[in-house]
Amino acid sequence: MSRASRFSGMDLRRMFEPKNIAVVGVSENFLNPGTVIFKKNLHEMEVNTFGVNPKGGVIDGREIYRKVSDIPVDLDLVVVAIRAEYVNPVVEECGEVGVGGVVVISGGFAEAGKEGAERQNELTRIALKYDLPVIGPNCFGIYSPPYVDTFFLPSERMVRLQPGNIAIISQSGGFMVDHFFSRFYERNLGISIAVGVGNKAVVDEAMILKYLEKDPRTKIITFYIEGFREGEGARFLEAARSCTEKKTVIVFRAGKTETAKRVVASHTGLMSTSPRLFSAALKQNGIIEARSEDEIVSFAKVFSFNLKPIERGNVAIVTISGGHGVVCSDLCAEAGLRLVELTEEEQKDLRSRLKPSAAYVATLKNPIDLTGSATDDDMETTLSFLLEKEDVDAVIILTFPYPPALSLTLGRRLSNTAVLYDKPVVAHVPWLPKYSMIVEGFEYNGVPVAHTIAEVVQMIKALYLRGQLLKAARERTLEAVAKTPSNPA
Fold this sequence. Notes:
Helices cover 42% and strands 17% of the residues. It is of the alpha/beta class. Strands 3-4-2-1-5-6-7 form a seven-stranded mixed beta sheet, with helices on both faces. A seven-stranded mixed beta sheet has the order 9-8-11-10-12-13-14, sandwiched between helices. The chain starts with a helix and ends in a 6-residue tail after the last helix.
C-alpha cells in the first residue's frame, strides 16, 4: 500500500483547530521547551491546555497529569517535547485514547543517523496503526491563531502574527520564524496557519495542502521546501493541481547547490531534487515559484490584497524621481514586464491635464516622471489617465513625500482612484514612521505598499506569473475539450 493511500483519510481539522490540547514534557524548569509551550497556550491562546509529566504536580495553578490517558477530556492535539527514546510509547498511548493528532517537537529521528531513522519508522508504523496524524518529528509544529501555538520559543523573543489569509508551510522552523514571521510582521501581514513539518514521518505538504484547499480562512498558501522523499513530490504536485484553480500556491525552494543538498540531508533527512525539473513541474501544475526569500514575501503580500492577475504584463510607472523610474524600468525588464509608452498624442493630452508647474517639466513617455513639482492632483490625474488606457494592465506608483506639494493624504486619494478601476495598482513608499499615514491610506483602500523598488516590481511580477498560469490552465482545458469526441445525438 502506498504512503498516499495509507494516510489519505487522516483528518487534520481537530489538530489545526483544537479545543483541548495536552503538552507532554512540562516541568518546573521554565526554559524547558515543553514548559514554554504549555504556558503559552495556557495564558495566550484560546484552547484548554493540560500538562503531562510522570511525576505529576502543579504548574501555574494547573494540575499536571502523569499520563495522557489520565486527562478527563477528549484531546484534539497532544504536543510531545521529550527525549527521542521516550516519544513512541507516548504516541502509542495517544492512539489508544483517540487523540485527534500529535506534534512531535523532539529531534533525534531520521536526521540523526541509523538509530534515529529506525525510531522514525516505528513512529510512522504507530501512526498508521491508529490512523493518527503526526506532525514532525524534529519540528516547530503549529501556530494557528487564535487556537494553538506549539512553537517552543518564548513569546517575548518572537513576533506574534495577527490572523489573516496566508498559510505558511515550512521544512525549517528557524527559517519560518526568522524570515516569514519577522517580515510578515514588518508588512502588517496576517496568517491563517503556520506549520513547521520537520521530518514528515506522517503528515507531509500534500496532506496539509488538501486540508488548506478547503480551509475558508486561507486564500494564499506559501511553502519553504528543501527536498522530498521518494514519491512525496508527485503527491504534492497532485494535491496542488486542483488547489491552484481556487487558491494561490507559492513555493520557495532552497537546497539547490551540492553543498546545500548535503546540509538538507543532515538537517531533515530529505533528498533535494534537480532545480530545473522542479521548476518545470511547479509551473506545469499551476504553482508560482519565488526565486528568492524576498520574492516569496512580496508575492504573498500582493495576493493577500486580492488583486486581479494580469496576463500581458503591460505596466505603467508613475514617479516623482527620474532615478527611481530608471531603476524600476530595469527591474521590470528583468521580471519579464513590458512598459507601455504613451504616444505623442497621449502625452499631449496628459500634459494638458496637469498643473502648469508639473506640466512644464514632466517627462511623460513611461516611466512618467512628474518631478518634484507634482501635486496630489497631478498624481491623481495621471493615475486615472493610465488606468483608462486599454493597453495598461497595472500601474506602479513610486512616491516619497519629500516635495512640499505632496500631502500626507496622498495614499488615500490615489487609492480612492484605484478602486474605481478593475486593474491592480501597487505603490512604493519609503519606510519611515512619519509616512505611516500615507501607507495606511493606500493599504486600507486595497493598494499594497512596498518599501523598496525591487519589492514593488516583485508584486506586479507575481500577478503576471499568476495570470500566465491561469491562462495556460484555460488553454489546456479548451484543448482537452476540443479533443473530446462529441456524443452522438
